[in-house]
Structures are given as C-alpha cells and as structure tokens.
Known about the structure:
By secondary structure, this protein is an alpha/beta fold. The protein has two domains: 4-210, DHBP synthase (Alpha-Beta Complex); 234-328, Rossmann fold, CATH 3.40.50.11030. The protein is built from ten helices and 16 strands. The protein has helices at 10-21, 43-53, 82-89, 106-109, 123-132, 152-159, 198-205, 243-255, 284-301, 316-328; strands spanning 4-7, 26-28, 35-39, 62-64, 75-76, 94-100, 114-118, 136-137, 165-168, 179-182, 189-192, 209-210, 234-238, 260-264, 277-279, 304-308. Helix 1 packs across helix 5 and helix 9 (284-301) packs parallel to helix 10.
Amino acid sequence: MITEIKTINERSIAEAVKILRSGGVIGMPTETVYGLAAIGTDSRAVEKIYEVKGRPSDNPLIAHVHRDYDIEKLVFVEQDYIPRLMNEYMPGPLTLVMRSRGIICKEAVCGGDTLALRIPSHEGCQALLRAADAPIVAPSANISKHTSPVTARHVYDDLNGKIPLILDGGKCSGGIESTVLDVTEKVPRILRAGLITREMIEKVAGGCEIAEHKDGDKVKSPGVKYRHYRPRCRTALFKEDEIEEAKLLYDKETASGNRAYIMCRTPLANYFEGKNLLLLGTGGEEIASNLYERLLQGEKEADIIIAIDMPREDGVYLGITNRLRKSCG
C-alpha cells in the first residue's frame, strides 16, 4: 500500500471521506495529537485500527464529532454540569465519558456501556468531521505504545505502507492527548489528565476527582492501562533535585561511546552547559506542546534520553508528568 500525505483542502477531505465510507482508515490531525481514524459504526473498519496499531483489543477508542453534531444520538447526557462543561471547553482538548446508546460499535468501546466523546477544535479536523457527518473514532496514529505523533511526518514514519492517506494539518498545538473526564456520576472524575485541568473543571462543575486506576478495573478511557508514549531508545528519568545524578549518567554514557541527550525545561539549560539538550520550553502549555516532538527527535539522535521530571504536578503539569513518567520512567 502506498501512503500519501496531503494538505487538508476540499479535494483531500473528499478523498478521505471516500476512504472512510468504504471501510478504510486514515491519519487525521487534531489540536492534541494526530489520530488514526475510522467510522465508529463500522465494526470492520474499527478492527483495522487495532490491527494497524497493534493495539490491545481491550483499550477503548474516543469518538470525534463536529461541533454541530447532536451528541445525544450517541450518549445519554445525564448530569446537569455536562452542558456547562461543553459550553466552556468544547470544542477543545476535553473528552467526556458518558453512557452509550450503543450506536458506536462494540469493538470501539471494547464491549463496555460507556463512550468517550470529544469535539476537536482543529479546523481541518472539523472540516473532515462535517464532511463525513458521522462519528469518527480515533486513537493516536502510531504503533501502539510508541510516542504519539504531532506532525503528519511522524504518522508517516510509523504507518507508512499501512494506511492510504494522512491529512496534513500542521503541527498539533496542544501536544498531549485530551483530558478524559468520566461524567457518569454526580462528581466528574479525571481518567486521563491533559490540558483541561482539574482546576478548570472544578470552576464549572463545582467539584472534580482524579481516578485511581487499579488492576482489574474496567477500562473506560484510553491511556490508562498500558505503558505508553515510549521513544525507540533507552530512557532515564530524574527529579529536579537529582540533576547531579543525571549529569553523572550522561558522562558515563558518553564515556562509553553512547549518544546521550538531556531533556529538560529550558530554565534548567544552564545546569547542563556543553551537553546535548532537548529543551521543552518554559511554561506548562509550551512544554506540553513540545514534549512528544522532542521525544521523537531524541529517538533519532540519541542512544539514551535522560529526562528531568517536572517540578509540579498541578494544573497542566499533571498531564505532562503523566506522559513523561510513562515515556521515560
């Protein structure tokens, strides 16, 4: 199979819709990461997603719809805070887990009775969703457990020869996957942290919990059960008060002839003068936007990425530390 990358326009969207409606899968951009997309009511097409990615069959998918889609065709909107959350943060990097009406195929929800639903803010993705006028399910467009793609080229590097088309919508601005929020109960629970923070949710819903995932729990959200986001090189992770230990490992690796890179917040660069660096930026949103791109850059240049953890775990940093520890810990 020949894989083509095409800039999003009316012609490429029409081609993408034709592929989707014929049971195919494509790569599509969102504001968070690129997704591997199929029509969510087509069981065979959804199975292709799992086959292409090598994704475990008990890891559910997120359904994406355009901003004018009637979500009550797909889910039961049961809590009074849900419309307020949607009005405030959707379209955007927020996924809501609600009771499913059973329209999305069982393969996408892994036989469960809930559906993870989101409305992306990426305008190119919105144009595709509107043209398809159907719920499109999509995990990240990469080989399972590899670092998530934030450019069309990243998708191509993983899935060349496995899918016919990748729509190029530029670099994803968000950089990490959406916040997944279970809204089936009176108090919403974060299943996967992201750019929509606990504090932002509390402001609208009046409260917010963070789920503790345990072995044997029924999985409602992607990104919680398996080791994810791993680059194809060795990694190590140190806290910010372990900088000297990180430098010692760097020196040991380079003395052994290995290519080592330090990945850290830009304000820490002075501590690693003269060393190979993958700088993430300064503020939380900037770091989130750059994280996967630096990991994917690093795996091409380094034998080992030595990462320095974040100094905080609140706000956006909760999602960043989640990805950083799963990718490098």
